[in-house]
Amino acid sequence: MKTSACISHCLFLIKMKVIILLALATIAYANVEPLDGNTAYGYIQNYAIPLAEKIRQQEEQMMQERIVGGLPSAPGQFPYQAGLLASYQGISGTGICGGSLISSNRVVTAAHCWFDGVNQAWLFNVVLGSNTLFTGGTRLPTSVVATHPSWTPLLVRNDIAVIYLPQSVASSATISPVALPSGPQVNENFAGESAIASGFGLTESQIGGPISSSQVLSHVSLNVITNNICSWSFPLILQDSNICTSGLGGSSTCQGDSGGPLVVNRNGQPILIGVTSFGSALGCTAGLPAAFARVTSYLSFLHQHI
């Protein structure tokens, strides 16, 4: 009887442990938020589409501000900046992202703008030479996009993609490719340098908050930090193939800026060093780092598609 009671009691304890572990796993999964929570799942439906509609409505009223803590950009100030208006399979509405023109017919963006692990885009309307997303500039529709072969939405790893434009665009005062790192720059980590991020995304921290009636392209100067420092904010997500900027002072990239450029200036020439990828679940103004795909880690992939 004692042996039988012991076995029953042990089985009961094992069952309880399994139930507790399953409950904890369920809670952990429930607290994962798209992109900001360091997974790309659901970014398109939860952020890209609702934000695009708000921006479209405000552009119809008037133009002027988006990146948190940043400034409106002058026409032609960032001629490599691309805006992306995306259409998705099985979902109504348009989503937004950013990108960078890297040749006359190629744009680099974040892979999660094309496929976030849940939703798949089928068309990008690429906007070049415009400080607004829904009006002006050169607009080129395309469905030819190459995401990195090792793109992993759950962990936001290898978050980079190349968009094939249907035709080449001529360089002008408002449209011009950005240079990729070359020579000694290939081995630099850029830590300690001041870099500029630009995009059409939020200037308010909360997606549910009001969108400013000033909807022009914005930019902000951010300090590049080491991955050792950045890993304190993203201990399980950050890879050597990421590059981070400090969020001190409340300045950062935000929803809608995904896929956009992070550049440093070398002898008057902008050099693309990052592609906007993810930030903190605590929000864009929390003073925490923002993470980008490190361009030097993906040069072979990019050159393969240029």
UniProtKB/TrEMBL annotation:
Transmembrane segments: none annotated. Residues 67-306 form the Peptidase S1 domain. Residues 1-30 form the signal peptide. Keywords: Disulfide bond, Hydrolase, Protease, Serine protease, Signal. InterPro entries: Peptidase_S1_PA, Peptidase_S1_PA_chymotrypsin, Peptidase_S1A, Ser/Thr_Proteases_Immune/Dev, Trypsin_dom, TRYPSIN_HIS, TRYPSIN_SER. GO terms for molecular function: serine-type endopeptidase activity. It holds the Pfam family Trypsin. The keyword Repeat does not apply. SUPFAM superfamilies: Trypsin-like serine proteases (SSF50494). The keyword Hydrolase applies. GO terms for biological process: proteolysis. Belongs to the peptidase S1 family. CLIP subfamily. This is Peptidase S1 domain-containing protein. It comes from Chrysodeixis includens (Soybean looper).
